[in-house]
Design brief:
Layout (H helix, E strand, L loop, with lengths): L4 E7 L5 H12 L4 E3 L8 E8 L6 H4 L4 E9 L1 E3 L8 E4 L7 H9 L3 E5 L8 E2 L2 E2 H6 L9 E14 L5 E8 L5 H12 L3 E11 L2 E2 L6 H6 L4 E2 H8 L2 E3 L2 H8 L12 E4 L5 E8 L2 E7 L3
Parallel strand pairs: 3-12, 15-16
Antiparallel strand pairs: 1-3, 1-14, 2-3, 4-11, 4-12, 5-6, 7-10, 8-9, 10-11, 12-13, 16-17, 17-18
């Protein structure tokens, strides 16, 4: 396959993101496939993949907001902050009512300093944190700034194992497992994630996603030009400007943010950003 573009996959549970990449490589007939943000094996939902030249878009797509639906169980803390880890503490939730849960959850909206889960893919001295944990090491990660734009509690089930369902819209790099852990700590009972479904990555949502079985029935790409127009502000250039872009020259354009620029015939040429009063190339996709 010589075409370049994006594939939006609805990942099933139990698969790693690399498993999905391997399957799409076979379906697309190319080794040049990558993904825009890992999903844990337990998680399902939107995984955006780039094919051929579109793999170079992925690093920029990772800067976009993401949305999730999740289920959090209170009263049990685990080593991984999700249901796949070992239980490290339990507590009764008898004294925790729905109003208290909703009030505590509201505290996790806004600009936060979040300590990632210890089994994240963050590198510590060149080695993934999750690998250090598997090797028996103690891992302490530094808090990182994240933004949770919305956190809606959609259901609360009070019982011997109190659970709540939440819908979250947040910046890339936010760990929903860490929200489950921290909410449980805030309530004094511990907590962990039992289900996670990513519903959107930037403009790509479940409505545009297909399962791997569906892709196997008829593989199709979102063309790179359409993908760029969907993900970034767009500017259509004249012939002179397009020629300058092809060799990476700066342009006398006023841009407000990272922008996709196109030739007069609609070809996607490059991503440009405002810098030093001009529009300057971030990545050129021609040639």
């Amino acid at each position: 396959m010589s075409e370049s573009g994006l594939v939006v996959v609805d990942k099933s549970g139990g698969m790693t993101s690399h498993d999905v990449v391997s399957r799409v490589r076979r379906l697309a007939g190319t080794r040049k496939v990558g993904h825009a943000g890992t999903l844990d094996p337990m998680a399902t939902g939107v995984l955006v993949l780039g094919v051929n030249r579109a793999t170079r878009l992925l690093g920029h797509l990772m800067l976009t907001d993401k949305a999730y639906d999740a289920t959090i169980r209170l009263g049990v803390a685990t080593t991984t902050d999700d249901a796949e880890g070992e239980v490290v503490a339990t507590a009764t939730t008898d004294g925790v009512d729905e109003a208290t849960i909703r009030a505590a959850a509201a505290e996790f909206v806004g600009d936060l300093l979040q300590v990632p889960t210890a089994v994240s893919a963050i590198k510590v001295d060149g080695k993934r944190a999750y690998q250090r944990v598997r090797d028996g090491e103690e891992v302490e990660l530094t808090a990182r700034p994240v933004t949770v734009h919305e956190l809606e509690v959609t259901d609360v089930r009070l019982s011997d194992s109190t659970e709540l369902d939440v819908s979250v819209r947040c910046t890339s790099g936010t760990y929903i497992r860490a929200i489950a852990r921290d909410l449980g700590a805030r309530l004094g009972v511990g907590g962990h994630l039992t289900a996670l479904r990513r519903t959107a990555v930037g403009p790509y949502d479940l409505a545009s996603a297909r399962t791997l079985d569906e892709l196997g029935d008829g593989f199709a790409l979102l063309p790179i030009a359409a993908a760029a127009r969907a993900a970034f502000p767009a500017v259509d250039l004249d012939d002179q400007q397009a020629g300058d872009v092809r060799v990476g020259r700066a342009l006398d354009l006023e841009l407000a943010a990272l922008t996709a620029v196109f030739a007069p015939d609609g070809e996607f040429l490059a991503l440009y950003e405002p810098r030093d009063g001009r529009a300057r190339a971030v990545a050129v996709f021609t040639g």
